[in-house]
Write a structure and sequence with these properties.
heterodimer, A: 360 residues, alpha/beta, D-Maltodextrin-Binding Protein, domain 2, 2 domains, eleven-stranded mixed beta sheet, 11 strands, B: 533 residues, mainly alpha, MetI-like fold, two-stranded antiparallel ribbon, transmembrane helix (chain B), MetI-like (chain B), transmembrane (chain B), transport (chain B), cell membrane (chain B)
């Protein structure tokens, strides 16, 4: 009798809990299939000004729900895993290093966004099929600590080749290419610059020249790099770090007290270009709203808001870039690039070789 | 029993099975050959070896440093005891990114050790081990100390009167009684360090890798789901084996204990030995735990006029749509829901496990309940996504998903904390009550509840703290645009600039204070006397 009462009580509680849970689930599911709501799936770096998003909602009549979904790699992988019953209508944030994975897995359906004509053709990597729309770009580049180089009366390095020179011995810190996207970008940049055969030799030279590898961008930038304000406090002693071309403007904008000039600079010949895309998900519930949302991402209003929110550059010609960007972080002149197909074919092998070459 | 079983089946076993199947099944055919392929790779074997030995070393070191503290907090009465006990639990809930940063200030370049003796431990295995002690100190202090405080000191005194030396009395009387709790604590520490992720990444540098790091990498970066699935199974088997051994040792040592009110066992320290022990423990706590925490607080105050804290209320500061401060409220709500679920599920499971007519199968469930702690967050997260996405259980967009995932991690704590106490309740008391005509519910209320009330509160406190700080699973799971505290901290830290870093430190400090406050409240709650003793 003991036993029975206990089981009955537990089953009762279980049923109550379950019905409560499924109750939650179904109301929410209804919310998302509602044609007035459009859901944007993105990565954690997604950001937009409140009023810009409100404007779009007012104009289009759609309510935007945003699902940030981890870092860029995770967000793409999750979208692929759930593509038959997607979490949203539009995905933003797949870049050229992951584009082939997304396209090969049939993540997106074709849609030619309004305003695509204003986008430079060099960003349109899916020109024939329009499964994705380029939204922004940014460069992964070596940043340098201006104070260090002034103090030591040394020219900051400018190119990949410079980094292997004895003058810059033990100065560079980079990220693990296997776990960090700037780390991977820097590896891809060197591979683009030195070719499929040449890059391992280049890295042997870098290793001999004392490159330090840490696991993530946060450690590299906040702990090891002497140019960031936090790195200085932490006693960072590496004046060269792999980061972004937009990091110097961020140092100015997010400073406690705005300095008159950026404390850091960018080595222009060490850049690898990242282009970020958005696309309409294959099994989107609200295709109409999704299309409107993609159009919005290409609108001038959104494009001009983006730089100070996500620290990337707009792809639309004529979209104004804030003064801080042009002043402290000019766009790289000749960034390295690699075709998404080529990255997809080689990435894992390269990362593997890089790991055994540099870390072991 | 039915509810805990259903809970773990639906929210743990099914999602994990789904993601493993996804990795190991190609076109409907199981690829078991992959298993031998993966585990015979030298890289993977190296990872396995490192994972195991660093976990063993971390557990030993944690026990060595924290067992004296468990005694001190349980048996010695000194000013600030409750506050300190809450504070040592704080590291446990802080996001590893933040702790890594603070910890480096202690053992890294220009850190305290460096300045005093020129010793730097970053990127060595010592940094990993010390950080593991830092994180898991509270596990031992709370699980072992919780029981220790309730052991009747008169038993040990009786042994002394009969001529036993203090050491012998302790070894013969107290140690056997504490055995299950020590084993439980050691097991938890082993599990956490065996599946360590953030600490190994940040403090060890990229050359050290645990199984968990490798699973994360294969799933999240390489997207090689079949390798990830094999590694998940390997971790599963390893953790399962440890749990079975543990369940067996604990059960062998089960004894009915005389439990007394915890408040009556603590005394002012007497004699040189006790004073030395107290000061030793306090020094360890200050150096190992308070110092890194103080570094965080100091960094959050770096801006003039609490600038970083004021920035937290700005809703359009760049990184979020909501003000970062909003994350505090979100976190509290999620943690409360998760604690309720964890306590319900965990308490029912613990009660079922201690029933005298519980069969072998039921008792085996004891070990299974711990498995969620040993399975990687990324596996569970991805599993949730592909398993709980269809009616009747389409939870992907529901807020409850986050508390559910957090409860999965919290429930084992509830079970672990309550089992030793419940098992220590003399079964004859229950029988006597039943014979006198009490209903099962009444037996539970009149006999068990007063005895386990404290354990229940300690367990709830732990579940709450764990939920508050949970990062791994939370960050993987779909949620509305309401970041929890740790998620907000991680997002702020992922951008350059003083203000972002400062806000991350300020939010971490708030997380620390909220957690310590929650634990203090619980400590207060339990002192409303049950009056039974």
């Amino acid at each position: 009798m003991h036993h029975k009462t206990f089981v009955a009580a537990a089953v009762g509680l279980g049923l109550v809990a379950m019905s409560a849970l499924t109750g939650c689930g179904s109301t929410d599911a209804k919310g998302s299939t509602d044609s007035r709501t459009v859901t944007l799936v993105s990565h954690d770096s997604w950001a937009v000004s409140k009023n810009v998003l409100k404007d779009f909602e007012k104009r289009s009549g759609y309510k935007v729900r945003v699902l940030p979904n981890g870092d860029a790699g995770q967000a793409v992988n999750k979208a692929i895993l759930t593509k038959d019953n997607p979490q949203g209508d539009v995905f933003f944030g797949v870049d050229n290093t992951l584009l082939s994975r997304a396209l090969d897995n049939g993540l997106f359906q074709p849609y030619e966004a309004k305003g695509l004509g204003t986008v430079g053709t060099q960003y349109q990597l899916d020109k024939a099929k329009h499964r994705v729309t380029p939204i922004d770009f940014g460069d992964i580049c070596v940043n340098y600590d201006k104070a260090y180089f002034e103090k030591h009366r040394l020219q900051p390095p400018q190119t990949f080749a410079d980094l292997a020179k004895p003058a810059y011995k033990n100065l560079l810190v980079t990220e693990n290419a296997a776990t960090s996207s700037p780390g991977l970008g820097f590896l891809l940049g060197s591979a683009a610059s030195y070719g499929d055969q040449g890059w391992p030799d280049y890295w042997k030279k870098l290793k001999a020249n004392g490159v330090k590898v840490v696991d993530g961008w946060e450690q590299a930038y906040y702990q090891e790099f002497s140019g960031s304000s936090e790195g200085r406090k932490a006693g960072g002693d590496r004046p060269l770090v792999v980061s972004y071309a937009s990091s110097p403007p961020a140092e100015v904008i997010y400073a406690k007290k705005r300095p008159s000039t950026a404390p850091t600079g960018v080595a222009g010949g060490t850049c690898f270009r990242q282009i970020e895309f958005a696309g309409l998900l294959s099994n989107a519930h609200n295709t109409k709203g999704g299309k409107a949302l993609v159009d919005f991402l290409l609108s001038k209003e959104f494009q001009q808001d983006m730089p100070l929110k996500m620290f990337v550059y707009p792809v639309v010609k004529g979209a104004a870039v804030p003064a801080e960007f042009t002043e402290y972080g000019p766009v790289a002149k000749n960034p390295e690039t690699l075709a998404p197909g080529k990255i997809a074919a080689n990435r894992d092998q390269w990362v593997k070789s890089w790991t055994s070459l540099v870390l072991k | 029993m039915a509810l805990p079983v259903a809970f773990f089946a639906v929210f743990f076993a099914w999602p994990v099975a789904a993601i493993v199947a996804r990795g190991l099944k190609v076109d409907g055919v199981w690829q078991f050959g992959r298993m031998t392929d993966v585990v015979t790779q030298p890289d993977i074997r190296h990872v396995l070896w490192f994972t195991t030995w660093q976990a063993l070393a971390s557990t030993a070191l944690t026990l060595l440093l924290a067992l004296p503290a468990a005694y001190v907090f349980a048996r010695l009465d000194f000013p600030g005891r409750q506050l300190l006990r809450a504070v040592v639990t704080v590291p446990f809930v802080l996001p590893t990114v933040v702790v890594g940063t603070a910890f480096l200030a202690l053992v890294g370049r220009g850190g305290l050790l460096d300045e005093l003796w020129g010793v730097r431990l970053d990127t060595t295995v010592w940094a990993i081990l010390l950080a593991h002690v830092f994180f898991n100190y509270a596990v031992v202090v709370r699980t072992v100390g919780g029981l220790w405080a309730q052991l009747d000191p008169r038993q040990e005194q009786a042994a002394r009167m009969l001529g036993a030396s203090p050491l012998r009395a302790w070894r013969k009387v107290t140690l056997p009684a504490l055995g299950p709790a020590v084993a439980a604590a050691a097991l938890m520490v082993f599990l956490f360090t065996f599946t360590s992720f953030g600490v190994v990444q940040i403090l060890g540098g990229p050359t050290f890798s645990t199984l968990e790091v490798e699973i994360y990498r294969q799933t999240s970066e390489v997207f090689d789901l079949s390798t990830a699935a094999v590694l998940t199974l390997v971790q599963f088997v390893a953790v399962g084996a440890i749990l079975v051994v543990h369940a067996w040792t604990v059960r062998r040592r089960e004894t009915a204990l005389r439990l007394v009110d915890a408040a009556s066992t603590a005394r002012r320290p007497r004699g040189g030995g006790q004073w030395a022990l107290l000061s030793g423990v306090l020094t360890t706590v200050v150096l190992l735990i308070l110092l890194p925490l103080a570094v965080l607080v100091r960094r959050s105050l770096d801006a003039p006029g609490l600038g970083y804290y004021r920035a937290l209320t700005d809703s359009d500061g760049g990184t979020f749509l909501v003000a970062p401060l909003h994350a505090v409220w979100t976190s509290l709500q999620y943690a409360a829901a998760a604690t309720a679920i964890a306590v319900l599920v965990g308490a029912l499971a613990a009660a079922a496990l201690t029933r005298r007519d519980a069969g072998r199968l039921v008792r085996g469930f004891d070990a299974l309940l711990m498995l969620p702690l040993g399975v990687s967050a990324v596996t569970v997260g991805f599993g949730f996504l592909i398993a709980l996405d269809k009616p009747p259980l389409d939870l992907r967009q529901s807020w409850i998903l986050v508390p559910l995932a957090q409860a999965l991690v919290g429930a084992p704590f509830v079970v672990r904390t309550m089992l030793p106490v419940l098992r220590a309740v003399d079964g004859r008391l229950r029988e006597a009550a039943a014979v006198l005509g009490a209903s099962p519910w009444r037996v539970w209320r009149e006999v068990d509840l007063p005895l386990v009330r404290r354990a229940l509160l300690v367990a709830a406190g732990f579940a709450f703290a764990v939920s508050l700080g949970e990062f791994g699973a939370t960050v993987f799971i779909a949620r509305p645009d309401n970041p929890t505290l740790p998620v907000a901290v991680a997002r702020l830290l992922s951008r350059p600039g003083d203000l972002n870093y400062g806000q991350a430190m300020a939010l971490s400090t708030i997380l620390m204070v909220v957690c310590a406050a929650a634990l203090l409240v619980l400590e207060r709650l339990r002192t409303d006397r049950t009056g039974e003793f």
